[in-house]
């Protein structure tokens, strides 16, 4: 009887699981296709969501014979918005699009994985037709299996919604063999249904390899005509918003084989596009968004920070080039005083105060009263803010700051209970403070709430130990970056360090400094340090020079490229500092007199790292050579056990657990955790090198 009962229970358990698995596999079908504009996210002149515009926008899409919309793409500036804002946007578009029979796709990527997953869940709850995601932007996947793992992390939380990958390597710097990825993703992810691809060569390579209901959406308007002639049928292009009839005309004439008409319309589209973008230098998205308002009469508002806004001269120039080309303009050309203030000041408390005074408009008898009040208060706040910045932002910390790991349990949840012991370990190792939320701390993998929790936990213990605290605030949606900066200042950290915007990456020194200035405005009394990385192709030395001139709280750079440190070593003023990062730079830096360091290996090998720095101060080249040689040997042996791990974080977290006895937990998704075999190999390597372990079980 017992045996029969056990078998019966087993059978029923299997049957209970089976339907859900069949449902997931069988029900995930990509039913949408055609022409999808990546809609702009409407903003008011204060940079806040203006959802009231969306019903008219949706009607415009419908009337122009388009098939649906993509939300929060590049044109929709999704990575610049908070999770809450992006949810509100999805809800507003679902409510407007569904009665019109329009499909809805949502781009959920461009932010930290917990937020990506939350957006995926909400999208599925609301019944969107498909979700689309950018790859991980900071811990960039560099192999097909890593990219597949990331996509599985997303698909697992929205298993019944078709999932597509947004391929745009020129912005993400993710270069993976897409044919290999397609094969893996198709095999391992039932809901994977295709791509939005910016690179036409890649689209051609994959065209004959997609299966079933998988689709490729071509995203580059410069290849639109060629794509139609090559048999592509699905398109997501920014220009569809502004010139829907023109785009549709190219597609229809191309399908009919009318080469002459297709060429004529295509050349017209490219002429319009180039004319608009040429008026805006490096703010092409801002230009095409302005054109949307001017051409269609749908006021989608300005571009969002941290990209520079258009000047009034640029706006007028865009209008003029369209008039010269005979484009019918439905949008009224209005000069908004509030827009000028927002575009030129961009100080958050000014914007908030301005919002308070919007209601005055209804109570004043003329515009002059409103303008006068607004101008006076804005000027007062600008003055007071700048005065306080100059007086208060002093960098008083220096020395050796390990970028601490973020302890997690086996399920990846924060384990802040370890931090008091960790802080004591830092103090006992003779270090001067900690960097919280850096690359080693995997800050870019945690939500805003989790990062605040980490800040609180470290500040609760470092004060009594007289340890300094630097907080990395970057690599999140830009509103969250500013919120982390504000929160860090409120809590009294010693400095903040920030990486530039990950997706809308600044391309010039001016744009980079503008980005940093916005962060500084959010925390004007806290020293700000720029976080240099080797894949950002903007000269850090020039950033340093301009930021020093324009941002009173700018106090230095966390240097990833040693040549940058050499260029700037003798250009530091007052309390500015350079923090050397990257373990391979420690010996040359110590030999040349550098004193400030932020390196992951400080956590795991404190005595060895201090020996190198100490030998450098004494001019002991033999001591440096011996210790540095040992460090390189250890690191080479450890990293050899995880050859496909770009940053080595999974391995170094495991080493930390083994040598200190403090359980750091596994690396956080979307990086692939170590296998049991890899962990054992690392343990064996440490034994072979004679490295003492406190936790070798």
Radius of gyration, taken over Cα atoms and rounded to an integer in Å:
27 Å
What is the helix tally? 29
State the helicity in percent bands: 40-55%
CATH class of the largest domain equals: Alpha Beta
The total tally of domains equals: 3
Fourth-tier CATH superfamily name of the largest domain:
Aldolase class I
Give the name of the CATH architecture of the largest domain.
Alpha-Beta Barrel
Determine the CATH topology of the largest domain: TIM Barrel
Helix/strand-derived class?
alpha/beta
Polypeptide structure, described:
The chain contains 29 helices and 13 strands. It has 697 residues and is α/β, with parallel strands linked by helices. The protein has 3 domains: 24-254, Alpha-Beta Barrel (TIM Barrel), CATH 3.20.20.70; 348-392; 416-688, Aldolase class I (TIM Barrel, Alpha-Beta Barrel). Strands 1-2-3-4-5-6-7 form a 7-stranded parallel β-sheet. Helix 5 (144-155) runs parallel beside helix 7, helix 13 packs across helix 14 and helix 16 (348-356) packs antiparallel against helix 17. The radius of gyration is 27 Å and the shape is globular. Mean pLDDT is 88; it is low at 1-26 and 332-391.
Topology:
Layout: H1 2-27, H2 54-63, E1 68-71, H3 83-97, E2 103-107, H4 113-126, E3 130-133, H5 144-155, E4 163-167, H6 169-172, H7 178-188, E5 192-197, H8 200-207, E6 215-218, H9 224-229, E7 234-235, H10 239-242, H11 244-255, H12 259-277, H13 284-296, H14 312-324, H15 337-344, H16 348-356, H17 367-392, H18 419-428, E8 433-436, H19 448-465, E9 468-472, H20 478-491, E10 495-498, H21 509-522, E11 528-531, H22 540-550, E12 554-559, H23 562-568, E13 577-580, H24 586-591, H25 601-604, H26 606-618, H27 621-639, H28 649-660, H29 676-688
Parallel strand pairs: 1-2, 2-3, 3-4, 4-5, 5-6, 6-7, 8-9, 9-10, 10-11, 11-12, 12-13
């Amino acid at each position: 009887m017992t045996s029969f009962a056990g078998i019966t229970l087993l059978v029923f358990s299997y049957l209970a699981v089976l339907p859900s698995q069949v449902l997931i596999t069988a029900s995930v079908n990509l039913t949408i296709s055609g022409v999808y504009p990546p809609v702009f996210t409407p903003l008011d002149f204060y940079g806040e969501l203006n959802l009231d515009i969306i019903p008219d926008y949706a009607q415009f899409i419908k009337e122009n014979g388009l098939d649906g919309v993509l939300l929060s793409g590049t044109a929709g500036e999704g990575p610049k918005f908070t999770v809450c804002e992006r949810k509100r946007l999805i809800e507003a578009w679902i409510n407007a699009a569904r009665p019109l029979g329009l499909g809805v796709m949502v781009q959920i990527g461009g932010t930290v994985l917990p937020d990506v997953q939350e957006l995926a869940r909400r999208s599925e709850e609301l019944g969107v037709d498909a979700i689309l995601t950018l790859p991980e932007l900071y811990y960039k996947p560099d192999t097909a299996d890593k990219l597949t793992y990331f996509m599985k992390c997303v698909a697992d939380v929205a298993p019944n919604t078709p999932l597509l990958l947004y391929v745009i390597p020129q912005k993400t710097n993710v270069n993976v063999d897409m044919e290999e990825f397609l094969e893996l993703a198709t095999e391992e992810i039932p809901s994977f249904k295709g791509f939005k691809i910016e690179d036409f060569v890649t689209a051609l390579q994959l065209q004959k390899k997609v299966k079933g209901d998988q689709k490729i959406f071509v995203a580059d308007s410069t290849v639109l005509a060629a794509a139609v002639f090559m048999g592509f049928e699905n398109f997501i292009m920014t220009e569809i918003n502004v010139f829907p009839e023109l785009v549709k005309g190219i597609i229809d004439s191309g399908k009919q084989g009318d080469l002459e008409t297709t060429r004529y319309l295509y050349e017209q589209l490219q002429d319009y596009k180039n004319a608009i973008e040429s008026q805006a230098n490096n703010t092409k998205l801002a230009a095409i968004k302005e054109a949307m308002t001017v051409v269609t009469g749908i006021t989608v508002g300005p571009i969002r920070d941290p990209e520079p806004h258009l000047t009034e001269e640029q706006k007028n120039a865009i209008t003029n080039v369209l008039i010269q080309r005979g484009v019918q303009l439905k949008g009224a050309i209005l000069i908004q005083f509030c827009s000028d203030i927002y575009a030129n000041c961009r100080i958050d408390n000014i914007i908030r105060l301005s919002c308070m005074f919007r209601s005055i408009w209804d109570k004043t008898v003329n515009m002059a009263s409103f303008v006068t009040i607004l101008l006076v208060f804005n000027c007062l706040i600008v003055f007071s803010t700048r005065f306080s910045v100059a007086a208060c932002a002093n960098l008083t910390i220096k020395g050796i700051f390990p970028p601490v790991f973020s302890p997690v349990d086996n399920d990846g949840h924060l384990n802040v209970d370890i931090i008091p012991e960790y802080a004591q370990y830092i103090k006992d190792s003779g270090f001067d403070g900690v960097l919280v939320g850096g690359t080693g701390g995997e800050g870019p993998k945690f939500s805003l709430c989790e990062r605040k929790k980490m800040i609180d936990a470290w500040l609760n213990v470092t004060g009594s130990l007289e340890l300094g605290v630097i907080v990395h605030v970057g690599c999140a949606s830009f509103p969250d970056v500013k919120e982390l900066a504000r929160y860090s200042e409120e809590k009294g950290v010693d400095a903040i360090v920030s990486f530039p915007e990950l997706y809308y990456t600044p391309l010039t020194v001016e744009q980079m400094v503008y980005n940093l200035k916005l962060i500084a405005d959010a925390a004007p009394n806290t020293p700000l340090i720029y976080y240099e990385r080797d894949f950002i192709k903007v000269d850090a030395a020039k950033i340093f020079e301009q930021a020093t001139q324009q941002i009173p709280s700018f106090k230095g750079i966390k240097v990833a490229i040693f040549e940058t440190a050499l260029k700037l070593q003798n250009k530091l003023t007052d309390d500015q500092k350079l923090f050397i990062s990257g373990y391979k730079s420690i010996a040359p830096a110590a030999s040349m007199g550098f004193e400030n360091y932020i390196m992951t290996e400080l956590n795991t090998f404190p005595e060895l790292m201090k020996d190198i720095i100490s030998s450098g101060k004494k001019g002991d080249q033999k001591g440096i050579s011996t210790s540095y040689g040992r460090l390189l040997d250890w690191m080479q042996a450890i990293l050899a056990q995880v050859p496909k791990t770009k940053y080595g974080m999974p391995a170094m977290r495991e080493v930390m657990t083994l040598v200190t006895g403090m359980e750091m937990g596994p690396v956080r998704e979307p990086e692939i955790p170590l296998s049991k075999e890899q962990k054992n190999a690392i343990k064996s390597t440490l034994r072979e090198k004679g490295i003492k372990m406190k936790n070798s079980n």
